[in-house]
Amino acid sequence: SYLGTDGGGELPLATVLAQRTNLSSTVRTWIEQLSHVGGSEEQIHLMHGEALQAVLEFARSDKCDLLIIGSQSGPGHFLGSVANGIVQFSDQSVLLVRTEQS
Hints:
- The protein is of the alpha/beta class.
- The protein has 3 helices and 4 strands.
- It has a two-stranded parallel ribbon with strand order 1-2. It has a two-stranded parallel sheet with strand order 3-4.
- The protein is globular and about 35 Å long.
- The termini are far apart.
């Protein structure tokens, strides 16, 4: 089965991009990845601004049930600051996925 389509649900991909991000390369990569799980371009949401506030506002306005957040933390820290803020302030349930540090 495809992610988000059982029962008529959606699985939007949302991120906040840094100003130096190569937008066209990022979007092409996401479209390719989404096509492997049955997603479409309409499910991509790009935002600019402060990451914590942008994600929380998107989750509220899009009426998300669950936020799946990648978390990169530094040495000696359990969570990164954005992931920690989302866990603290989100009205939605949050699933944290540990990502590799760059």
